[in-house]
Amino acid sequence: MKEIQFDAIRDAVAKLCIDANCLLGDDVVQAFEDGLKIEESPAGKDILNQLLENEQIARKEMMPICQDTGWAVVWVKLGSGVRVQGGELYDAIQQGVARGYTDGYLRKSIVKDPLRRVNTKDNTPAIIYTDIGPGDGLEIIVQPKGGGSENMSEVKMLSAADGAEGIKRFVVDRVARSKANPCPPVIVGVGIGGTFEKCAMLAKHSLLREIGSVHPDPFYADMEKELLERVNKLGIGPQGLGGRVTALAVFVEAFPCHIATMPCAVNINCHAARHKSVTL
Amino acid sequence: MAKKITAPLTPETVKDLRAGDSVLISGTIYTGRDLAHKRLTDSLKAGEKLPFDLAGAVIYYVGPSPAKPGQVIGSAGPTTSYRMDAYSPLLMEKGLRGMIGKGNRTPVVLDAMKKYGAVYFAAVGGAAALIAKTIKKAKVIAYDDLGPEAVRELEVEDFPAIVINDMYGGDLYEQGVAQYKKD
Which residues 74-103 on chain A approach chain B with CB closer than 8 angstroms? Predict the structure, then answer.
C-alpha cells in the first residue's frame, strides 16, 4: 500500500490549475508557429502572431492566457495500491481547485444552479472522472475547459448505415456551424461509439492528446487527417475572419458500440487548449 | 493602418467605419455580459435609470479574471457575443452605438445596427493577457454581486479591435470566409 497525503494532492491540484491556465503547452505554441507557415490570410497571420505574443505575456507574468479559466475538468487515474491519508481524494481535489482558482487570480466561472445562476465564488465543483486500475500511482490531469467552445459542441445518435462518411459529415458540419464563435483555430475532439454519455466523454478526453501526435490505429489516423483537411477547407480561419487555419488538430477516440447505435460527439476546444498533469 | 477612434462614439465615427477596418479604441467603455445585459434591459423596461449613460456608449462583452496586486485588471479578452443578441436591439434603441465581442450576430441584431447606426467590433478571443495591457483604469460601477459579470467602467488606450459589422450591412465574417472557402 502506498500512502499519499491529502494535503499533497490538494496542493498539487492547486498548482495544476494555475499552471494549466497560465502556461500554454509547447505543442500548442508549435501549432501556432506551424499555422503561420500555411496561413494565407494577412488577418489570420496577424491573429496567430497575437496569440504567440499573448502566450509570452501570460507565461512571463503568470496571468491567464484567456480570462475564461474554465470548468476544472479533472481526470484521475488511481492505482488500487494507493491509500489517501488525512481525508478523501475527492475533497482534496475540490479544495485544490478552490485554492488554485483563488490564489492564482483565476476567474470563478461556475454558478450553483443552471437557472438561478449564483456564482459559487471558488470555481467548484470540479468535474472529476476517475479510472481505477492496478499499481500504486496517482495521476491527476487538470483540463480547464472554456465555455464558449463548449457551447459549440454536440452529440448525435447516428446509425451504422451512416458509416464513416456520416461521422465525417457531422464533424465537419459542426465546425462549419460554429463559425467564429469558439475562438478558432480550434482543436476538434471526436468521440465515436459507447453510449450517449460515453461518447461525449471520449470526445472530451481526446482533447488531452498532444497536437502533432498520430492516432495509433491507422484507420483513425487516416480519418483524423482527412477531417483536418476538410475542416481547413471551410475557410473560417483564425477568429473566423477567413483563412486556412480553422483547426490545429482533429482527435478521434473510438469505443465499442451497441449493435443498434453509432453515437458521435464533437467537443470543440478553443486555441487555448489547456491541460497539465502530475503523478504522485 | 488602424483607425484611431474615441469612445463614447459620435454618429460621425460610426458612419466612417466599414467592415474590415482595424481600429484602436481610446476613451471610456463599459463591460457587460449575460446577466448584466438582463439586468440592464429589465431596468430599461421598468423605466429605471441605468448605471451609465447609453448615449454613444460602447459595451465590451467581457468577464475579466481578477486583478493581481499591482494590476489594473486581470486577463480580459472578449466572450462570445450571440448570447447578448436577445438584449442588444433594445440597448441600441436607447443609445448604444458600439459592441465589442467575438463571433457571429443574429439578423435581428444586424438589422438594429442598420436602423440605429451602430457598429460591432471583434477583439481577438483568447488574447486576453495582451488586451489587458490596453486597459488603463477599471472600476466596478454596478452589479458587484455578479462577480466577473459585474458592470465595469474601463478606460482604454489603443484597444485593438476590428470592425465585423458596420451600419451599412457589411459583414467581415461573411466576406472573409467566402474568400478562403474551398469546395
Answer: none
Residue B183 has pLDDT above 90, yes or no: no
Which residue of chain A is at minimal alpha-carbon distance from B181? A235
Residues shown for chain B: 183
Distance spanning both ends of chain A, measured CA to CA? 14
- Amino acid identity of residue B28, one-letter, is T
Q: Domain A148-273 belongs to what topology?
A: 60s Ribosomal Protein L30; Chain: A; (3.30.1330)
B154 inside 8 A of chain A by CB: no
Q: How far is CA A186 from CA A98, A237, A266, B150, in A?
A: 28, 10, 12, 29
Which one is catalytic: B5, B14, B25, B37?
B37
Domain assignments of chain A as residue spans, ordered by start:
2-20+65-145, 148-273
- What's the rounded mean pLDDT across residues A114-118? 95
In terms of phi and psi (left: phi > 0; alpha: psi -120 to 50; beta: otherwise), the region of B111 is alpha
A274 part of contact set with chain B, CB < 8 Å: no
* Residue appearing with cell numbers 484602436: B24
Over residues A139-169, the pLDDT tens digits come to 999 999 999 999 999 999 999 999 999 999 9
A240 to chain B: which residues are within 8 Å by CB?
Answer: 102-104, 173, 176-177
Burial of B12 (0-12, 13-18, 19+ CB in 10 A): exposed
Segments making up each domain of chain B, as ranges = 3-180
- Whether B70 and chain A come into contact, CB under 8 Å, resolves to no
What digits encode the pLDDT tens for the residues A200-255? 999 999 999 999 999 999 999 999 999 999 999 999 999 999 999 999 999 999 99
pLDDT attached to residue A214:
97
Options 3.20.130.10, 3.40.50.12780, 3.40.50.740, 3.40.1080.10; CATH for B3-180 is 3.20.130.10
The answer to whether the beta carbons of residues A248 and A64 sit under 8 Å apart is no
Q: In this structure, what C-alpha cell is assigned to residue B71?
A: 494590476
Q: Does B176 touch chain A if contact means CB atoms closer than 8 Å?
A: yes
Distance CA A260, CA A195 (A): 11
